[in-house]
Amino acid sequence: MIIKNVYKKLFKIIAKTFPLNLIRAFALRAVGYHVGKKVYIGEELHITDELDNLKCNLWIGDRVSIAQRVLIVLSSYPNNSKLRKKTGEIFGTVKICDDAWIGAGVIILPNVTIGEQAIVGAGSIVTKDVPPWTIVAGNPARILRSIDE
Fold first, then answer.
1. Which residues contact 42 (CB under 8 A, 6 or more apart)?
2. Which of 147, 149, 117, 143 is nearest to 128 (CA)?
3. CA 21, CA 147: separation in Å to the nearest integer?
4. Cβ neighbours of residue 137 closer than 8 Å, sequence gap 6 or more
5. What phi, psi does 85 have (nearest 5°)?
6. Could you give the CA distance from residue 73 to residue 116 in angstroms, rounded to a whole number?
7. What is the pTM of this model?
8. What is the pLDDT of residues 36-66, one digit of tens each?
9. Could you give the domains of the chain?
């Protein structure tokens, strides 16, 4: 188990920092996340999850573009705080559908789906599902307008 966790952590570091996109995408696949074809992964993509928790999953469709310094949260809880007993833990999946574009500095929280060909504006915080063919932005991200199919 420890070796598997070290392996996963190492490949997450490679996915975050390696200068070639091809290697960043390969590293995310090596971790166990689904990464489609022709995906662009910007530098400093940070994914928070539990290394040994199978409830945390990331699914990235084909031709998705993820800009630099994006944070995808798959798990969250107040660690060793007494609050943990009261608030519980959140473990989830993030799904980014085909042809979506995630702007720089976006934060995506657990259990969110970004629809097909959706655009998430830079610096947005995505707290709920984004419908296909829409542009969202803000904190929390809100629909700005639809995109014609």
1. 66, 67, 68, 69, 70, 104
2. 143
3. 27
4. 103, 120, 121, 122, 123, 124, 144
5. -65, -30
6. 20
7. 0.91
8. 999 999 999 999 987 666 678 999 999 999 9
9. 35-146 (2.160.10.10)
Q: Are 129 and 112 in contact (CB under 8 A)?
A: yes
- Number of C-beta neighbours around residue 141 at 10 A: 24
Output the 3-class SS for 68-132: CCCEEECEECCCCCCHHHHHCCEECEEEECCCCEECCCCEECCCEEECCCCEECCCCEECCCECC
The reply to whether omega before 140 is within 30° of 0 (cis) is yes
User: Side chain identity at 58, as an amino acid letter?
Assistant: L
Angle at which helices 2-17 and 21-31 pack, to 10 degrees? 160
Q: Which residue has the higher pLDDT, 7 or 137?
A: 137
Q: Per-residue b/e over 45-57, b at no fewer than 16 CB within 10 Å?
A: bebebebeeeebb
Tokens of 134: 């829409």
For residue 39, CA distances in Å to 6, 24, 60 come to 25, 10, 8
